[in-house]
């Protein structure tokens, strides 16, 4: 362990602020309204938690949040269509609301010596107040964008590549930008093939244009990787996870006897894809291949009990995959202060 302390600066600040507020309440509690000063304008509500520190062996790691969204299409996004009643029953059985799909956006940050690895960029700056928090989250853990030395991209959907580019500028100018060649080739092909995907077809031209423009901005820093490659002295291993996209990449972080499998968009929901790995989301480019990848990975993780991290699973995204009946279950880790 690099440090026994798992309390983040953000949390320390929060505790200090809370203690001050409590003391102020205690001091004014005995005074009548006439004796207190007029109320100051309402303070900005405190930000939700967005930085969680943990360790992978000797490495310091963070789960930082880019925010969260509620997908109002709900089960209308899930396939096969005929299984939606069973999916709804599964959500009810787990105490989940059935009118939407929550979409957490969890970003993994790992420090290896003086190098800082960032895994996907989130949506990036935008108008939605519930997303695009990565810059703020990094600042909260004391990392300027210039300090990031390695930016890993799992795939080029907007919630993953968006946070790497603003306008025609790289947000992490000193970071080598890593992705699989298959992902780059897909988006740069003359006609990216979405024929098997259940995605709405209307937004596709805009989505393709956006991904291509972002890759063009990132081109000077691009360093393609292959499945099986080891980076940062072998601490990061690249793993192919095709189906969600052609070059969908997963990443294993290893230190000593500990490891973490970052499985990105292999699962978008913490009960549905685990109860039945054959249930998939419309965003998959090749649904059958995505299911195959999910089944293989869950079989592996439920056997090895390796710690895992999900990009879209409930914050902070850490947990393990366990066998449960004919399928699996996500055993999310509770928030820990190192106890
Ligand atoms: Zn995603």
In short, what is this structure?
The protein has eight helices and 17 strands. The chain is α+β, with helices and mostly antiparallel strands and 339 residues long.
Subunit organisation of the chains: single chain
Mean pLDDT across the residues is 90
Biggest sheet statistics: 7 strands, mixed
For this structure, what is the CATH homologous superfamily? Ribonuclease Z/Hydroxyacylglutathione hydrolase-like
Bound molecules: zinc ion
- What structural class do the secondary elements suggest? alpha+beta
Radius of gyration in whole Å, from Cα?
21 Å
At CATH level 2, the architecture is 4-Layer Sandwich
What does this entry look like structurally?
It is a single chain. It is built from eight helices and 17 strands. With 339 residues, it is of the alpha+beta class. It has one domain: 4-Layer Sandwich (Metallo-beta-lactamase, Chain A). The radius of gyration is 21 Å and the shape is globular. The protein binds zinc ion. Zinc ion (ZN) is lined by residues 157, 159-160, 265, 311-312.
């Amino acid at each position: 362990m690099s440090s026994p302390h798992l309390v983040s600066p953000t949390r320390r600040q929060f505790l200090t602020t809370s203690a001050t507020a409590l003391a102020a309440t205690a001091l004014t509690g005995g005074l009548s309204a006439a004796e207190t000063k007029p109320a100051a304008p309402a303070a900005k509500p405190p930000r939700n938690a967005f930085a969680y520190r943990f360790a992978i062996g000797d490495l310091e790691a963070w789960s930082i949040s880019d925010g969260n969204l509620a997908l109002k299409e709900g089960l209308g996004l899930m396939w096969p269509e005929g299984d939606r009643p069973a999916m709804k029953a599964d959500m009810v059985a787990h105490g989940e609301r059935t009118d939407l799909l929550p979409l957490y956006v969890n970003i993994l940050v790992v420090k290896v010596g003086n190098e800082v690895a960032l895994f996907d960029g989130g949506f990036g700056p935008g108008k939605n107040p519930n997303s695009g928090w990565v810059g703020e989250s990094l600042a909260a853990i004391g990392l300027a964008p210039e300090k990031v030395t390695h930016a890993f991209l799992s795939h080029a959907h907007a919630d993953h590549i968006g946070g790497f580019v603003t306008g025609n500028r790289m947000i992490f100018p000193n970071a080598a930008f890593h992705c699989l060649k298959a992902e780059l080739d897909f988006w740069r092909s003359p006609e990216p093939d979405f024929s098997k995907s259940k995605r709405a077809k209307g937004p596709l031209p805009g989505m393709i244009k956006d991904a291509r423009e972002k890759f063009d901005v990132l081109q000077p820093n691009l360093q393609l990787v292959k499945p099986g490659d080891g980076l940062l002295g072998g601490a990061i291993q690249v793993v192919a996870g095709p189906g969600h996209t052609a070059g969908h990449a997963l990443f294993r972080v290893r230190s000593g006897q500990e490891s973490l499998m970052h499985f990105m968009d292999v699962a978008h929901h913490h009960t549905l894809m685990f109860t039945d790995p054959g249930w998939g989301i419309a965003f998959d480019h090749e649904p059958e291949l995505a299911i195959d990848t999910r089944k293989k990975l869950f079989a592996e993780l439920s056997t090895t009990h390796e710690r895992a991290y999900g990009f879209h699973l409930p914050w902070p995204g850490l947990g393990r995959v366990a066998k449960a009946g004919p399928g699996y279950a996500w055993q999310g880790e509770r928030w820990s202060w190192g106890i």
